[in-house]
Structures are given as structure tokens and as C-alpha cells.
Write a structure and sequence with these properties.
There is one protein chain. The chain has 280 residues and is of the alpha/beta class. Helix content is 44%, strand content 10%. The chain has a domain at 63-234. Helix 4 packs antiparallel against helix 11, helix 7 crosses helix 9 and helix 10 packs antiparallel against helix 11. The relative contact order is 0.13.
Length: 280
């Protein structure tokens, strides 16, 4: 059993034991209970819909869920894996060492309030030489403003820890939309033209203020960032290829093999990746 399956076991435990997430049931009474009496003032009344299987089926089609598996795997993965997967498709050669952070961390790193953290990257990797953003897509479309959240992070990270030689943003999308998903938002080359940012008007206030205060840094990041797209099928196949080169008799390689196998299994199981169910 791969580790991703055991994560779903955690979900099953929480589904049936809701007190673990701060919820409690209302004891059955002969008369109808008054919610105003039995529910705390700050609370709400919830009801289950569907079975555990119904909920799991829905979760297996959500980008946010696959995003969590992706981040767990790449937070643990070796520098060599990060170098091969997010970096190489962008034409970036970097052996690391890499660190990564994802949603919910930036307000503490950059001194923002929690309400100001509107960047919400799917993945963000940094080394002494590179800053790499990763945006995951299943059924939803890419919209231009999403690119700006990564530019904002790159501006902030370079202000905090210094300028990098390599900046990249990689999209992972279903195979059928890989070739034209960037062209649909007016991007026809692996870089951003000088007017790209000026064409966008729907910016969150925090990002808009950041850009207004740092126009030179923003334009520098815009000129240097490389854009690229790969498919979930490509990522699945690359994981399989790396696994084939690992020796399970060597402890460290055995651990990495199990890690990558779990991520690959989750990509296979998840709906919306464009990979047919049951395809090896």
C-alpha cells in the first residue's frame, strides 16, 4: 500500500470522529432541540451529506487536495528530484539545496497580516540560485492574475534574501490543454512582454500596493521569469522513470522510491489530470 492511501485512512478516521476537528453531535432528545440553546453563539449547525464514499469521490476531483499531496511529496523529496522535475522543464539547471513553502506561510515570512496573504501559491521552491513557482491545474482555467501572485512572491523573496539568477513558473495541466493554455491568456512565448502587467486590472490590494511600491523590482522579475507547461501525464511518467533508476536495497533510495510511488499513485487516482482511470 502506498503512503497516499494511508492519508485517506486519516480522512476516514476524521469523517467518523468529528470531535477531532472541534465538532460535536447534539444528543437525541424526545423534543426537537433548539439550536440557539445547544449550539455555542459562535457555532453553526452542520449536517452530513452523502456517504464517506461520496465525499471521497468528490475530494478526488479537487485541485486543493492534490495540491496537498504534491506539497507533502516535494517537501520531502531530494534536491535531485526538484532539479529534474520543476526546474528542468523551464531550462533551469540547479542542483540546490532547495527549500519550499506553500499556502499560509508567507504572512509570517514577509510580515503580512493573515488577511493580506493573497498569494496562495500551489508550490514555491527556492535555492541560492533560483526561485521556482508551480501552479497546478485540473479542470479550472488559468487566468492572468494568477501569474502575478508568483511575481509578487519573487519580488518579496528577492528583497528578503537577495537576487537570483533563475526565476521560473511551471504549470502542470491536463495533456489536452497543455499546448495552448497559456496562449489563451495572451502569452505566446516563455516570457512576459512589457505590457503584460499593465493589461491587468483585477489585482488584490496587497499585491497592487506591493507593485506600486516596487516598480523597478517588479519589472526586473517580469523580464527574467521563464514560463513553461508540462502535463500530469508527463509528471507521472517522469516519476516512474526516476523510480526505475532507484535501488530499493539502498536505504535512502528505498525511502525516495516509496515517496515518489505514493505521489504517482495519487496522480493516477485523481480525477481531472487527463490520465485515463486504470492506465499504468
Amino acid at each position: 500500500m502506498t503512503w497516499n492511501k494511508k492519508c485517506w485512512g486519516i480522512f476516514s478516521n476524521i469523517y467518523w470522529t468529528t470531535r477531532f476537528i472541534g465538532m460535536r453531535s447534539i444528543k437525541v432528545a424526545r423534543e426537537l432541540a433548539d439550536p440557539n440553546v445547544v449550539v455555542p453563539k459562535s457555532g453553526r449547525v452542520y449536517v452530513r451529506y452523502g456517504t464517506e464514499g461520496d465525499v471521497v469521490k468528490k475530494l478526488l476531483s479537487q485541485e486543493e487536495v492534490l495540491n496537498h499531496f504534491f506539497n507533502i511529496a516535494f517537501d520531502i523529496a531530494s534536491d535531485d528530484v526538484i532539479s529534474q522535475l520543476p526546474c528542468r522543464p523551464l531550462g533551469i539547471e540547479d542542483r540546490g539545496p532547495f527549500e519550499s513553502y506553500s499556502r499560509g506561510f508567507h504572512h509570517t515570512r514577509f510580515g503580512w497580516s493573515e488577511n493580506e496573504d493573497v498569494t496562495q501559491p500551489d508550490g514555491f521552491f527556492f535555492s541560492p540560485r533560483s526561485l521556482i513557482g508551480v501552479e497546478l491545474k485540473l479542470g479550472s482555467s488559468t487566468w492572468p492574475e494568477q501569474i502575478l501572485k508568483y511575481l509578487a512572491l519573487m519580488v518579496c523573496e528577492e528583497r528578503k534574501t537577495g537576487k537570483r539568477g533563475n526565476l521560473g513558473l511551471l504549470f502542470i495541466v491536463p495533456e489536452k490543454v497543455r499546448e495552448n493554455h497559456l496562449s489563451k491568456i495572451g502569452i505566446n512565448r516563455p516570457s512576459l512582454d512589457a505590457e503584460f502587467i499593465a493589461r491587468l486590472s483585477k489585482l488584490p490590494k496587497r499585491i497592487k500596493r506591493l507593485f506600486e511600491e516596487n516598480p523597478i523590482e517588479l519589472d526586473s522579475v517580469r523580464r527574467r521569469v521563464r514560463l513553461g507547461s508540462v502535463s500530469w501525464t508527463w509528471l507521472r511518467d517522469q516519476l516512474k522513470h526516476i523510480e526505475s533508476e532507484l535501488d530499493p536495497r539502498i536505504r535512502g533510495e528505498q525511502t525516495l522510491l516509496r515517496l515518489l510511488a505514493g505521489l504517482r499513485a495519487q496522480i493516477q487516482d485523481h480525477k481531472g489530470t487527463g490520465i485515463p482511470v486504470g492506465e499504468p
